[in-house]
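> example.struct
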């Protein structure tokens, strides 16, 4: 299996690059943010719970997020591999993902991290907020909170994969196609 964690701060381009990677490599795309938003739209109990955190730019609690992700992985027993987009975001989630994949005799192949500086992220998110309709992209305070949460709670996940020699940073600024080519080169080298 080819299992990729696509990592990076909010606004780094994970969603855009995931779409291109799943088309090229035939992987299943699991974006925890997208799954939460679909639940909010569908008015589920999970959606109501997730919304109360997402609206503030906070992380949805680990046990909820991990349970949801595990059920999505288990729904795809014949997958050639997965792109995990926006997950794991905490050390506990990274540990849980390792355990989950090991239960299906698999493992994370690599973490690809899109590197983009904070000023550029703030600009991109506000711009995205204009057409995405995402409330969490329209409020500068919520955006800053998400960047802070990323710096404080999510950065340790990078060390988790560095220790396993699975971390690869990719410059996330530039043309979408150039970034995509660099991601593919990193995958093919592995
Ligand atoms: P995203 O679409 O990845 O930017 O995620 C939007 C929001 O969903 C985040 O700001 C969090 O509130 C929530 N979220 C997405 N993925 C996770 C995760 N792995 N753990 C906790 N909360 C998450």
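> example.seq
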């Amino acid at each position: 299996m080819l299992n990729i964690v696509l990592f990076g701060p909010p606004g780094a381009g994970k969603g855009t690059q995931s779409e291109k990677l799943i088309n090229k490599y035939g992987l299943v795309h699991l974006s925890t943010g997208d799954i939460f938003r679909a639940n909010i739209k569908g008015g589920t109990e999970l959606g109501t719970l997730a919304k109360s955190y997402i609206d503030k730019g906070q992380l949805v609690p680990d046990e909820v997020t991990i349970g949801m992700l595990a059920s999505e992985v288990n729904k795809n027993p014949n997958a050639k591999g997965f792109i995990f987009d926006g997950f794991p975001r905490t050390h506990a989630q990274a540990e849980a993902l390792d355990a989950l994949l090991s239960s299906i005799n698999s493992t994370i192949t690599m973490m690809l991290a899109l590197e983009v500086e904070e000023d550029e992220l703030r600009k991109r998110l506000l711009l995205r907020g204009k057409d995405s309709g995402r409330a969490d992209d329209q409020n500068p305070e919520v955006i800053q909170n998400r960047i802070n949460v990323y710096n404080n709670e999510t950065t340790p996940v990078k060390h988790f994969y560095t220790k396993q020699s699975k971390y690869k940073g990719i410059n996330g600024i530039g043309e979408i196609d150039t970034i995509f080519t660099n991601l593919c080169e990193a995958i093919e080298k592995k």
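> remarks
The pocket of adenosine monophosphate is lined by residues 10, 32-33, 36, 53-54, 57-60, 65, 86-87, 89, 93, 136, 146 (CB under 6 Å).
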